[in-house]
Write a structure and sequence with these properties.
This protein is mainly alpha-helical and 77 residues long. It has helices at 3-13, 35-49, 64-72.
């Protein structure tokens, strides 16, 4: 799975977001991803992709696309 697939799958399966609501331009906060949920999402992404996102600044104001880009930048080629 690539970064976009992992993020989208977690948003839908773990956080109950409708897949139709997830686009690159969608702000995480509009998906009801607050700071606590974002930390949970960060840990789940780290576990699934075996990466460390600790130094990546993420906020609920970020869009899904920004999150995917940040994650993608940490995944080894």
């Amino acid at each position: 799975m690539n970064a976009a697939e992992v993020v989208n799958a977690l948003l839908v399966q773990r956080f109950g977001v409708s897949s139709g609501d997830v686009t690159d331009e969608t702000p995480l906060r509009s998906l009801r991803i607050d700071s606590l949920a974002l930390e949970e999402l960060r840990v789940l992404i780290e576990d699934q992709l075996d990466i460390d996102l600790e130094d990546v600044p993420l906020t609920s104001r970020d869009t899904v696309g920004q999150l995917v880009a940040a994650v993608d930048g940490m995944v080894p080629a």
